[in-house]
Design a protein that fits this description.
Blueprint: E1 32-34, E2 43-45, E3 50-55, E4 59-60, E5 66-71, E6 75-76, E7 84-86, E8 91-96, E9 109-115, E10 121-130, E11 141-143, H1 146-166, H2 181-205, E12 210-213, E13 218-222, E14 226-229
Antiparallel strand pairs: 1-14, 2-14, 3-5, 3-13, 4-12, 5-8, 6-7, 8-9, 9-10, 10-13, 11-12
Helix pairs in contact: 1-2
């Protein structure tokens, strides 16, 4: 029965770091990541091929983590489109970036491993996720914490007004009199409390948005290198 095969020294091949924990046999050999000039097999997925996938785990940008997805339809070779190389149900593993700016609404996700339905797996060069229109990154729900920002802005305004009123000589009068020691002390304490509160509230205004990508989101994985197979996909023998 035909099966996937790779060449010695290929990523994930026998003896290489991250190799599948399976017996030493041609059936267990993974596909090979190659350069275009060295592709000797007709069963190739070219760089730029988009693997159709659907998200199976939720992503939240507050903390980094691992994300999983499943290919929602089979993938055939790039030259002819007749040979099945990755069946539907193939799993993908990736990681997502949480380095966001205040105006960001897309989450960058990179994929590094494919797991075939028969249990074999292999590494691929980091490949970005794209939406259904081909734009890099995934977008779904965005929480910009506007209520929190408006509350902080209101409190900052109140503190600023309080700081002005706490200063000695802030009362309106036609006659000048020097501030007392108690007024000077109260003004200094009020100013320090205002500064501390302002710094704390300013952090609320600088908070990053929270992006959430829900399971079931449809997207694509763009391959960043050619991947050559020795033969079309076939179920491994029991």
């Amino acid at each position: 029965m035909p099966a996937l095969a790779g060449a010695p020294g290929a990523p994930g091949a026998s003896g290489a770091p991250g190799m599948p924990l399976q017996p030493e046999s041609p059936d267990a050999a993974p596909p090979q990541v190659v350069r275009p000039a060295s592709a000797v097999s007709p069963y190739v997925l070219y760089e730029g091929t988009i693997l159709p996938a659907v998200l199976t785990s939720e992503l939240t940008s507050d903390l980094p983590g691992i994300v999983t997805a499943t290919l929602r339809s089979p993938v055939f070779d790039s030259p002819s489109g007749h040979h099945l190389l990755l069946p539907a149900g193939t799993k993908a593993l990736g990681r997502y970036d949480t380095s966001l700016a205040s105006g960001d609404s897309r989450l960058l996700v990179s994929w590094h491993r494919l797991i075939l339905p028969d249990g074999r797996f292999f590494e691929i060069p980091l490949s970005n996720a794209v939406d259904v229109h081909g734009s890099t990154g995934l977008v779904d729900r965005t929480d910009r914490h506007l209520a929190r920002a408006f509350t902080s802005t209101l409190l900052l305004s109140i503190l600023s007004a309080g700081a002005q009123l706490a200063q000695p000589g802030s009362t309106y009068s036609n006659t000048y009199r020097p501030p007392t020691a108690g007024e000077i002390a109260a003004g200094a304490v009020g100013q320090q409390v205002t500064n501390l509160s302002t710094n704390l509230l300013q952090k609320d205004l600088d908070v990053k948005p929270t992006l959430t990508i829900r399971p079931g989101t449809v997207f694509g994985i763009v391959l960043q290198a050619d991947i050559a197979f020795a033969a079309p996909y076939a179920e491994a023998r029991p």
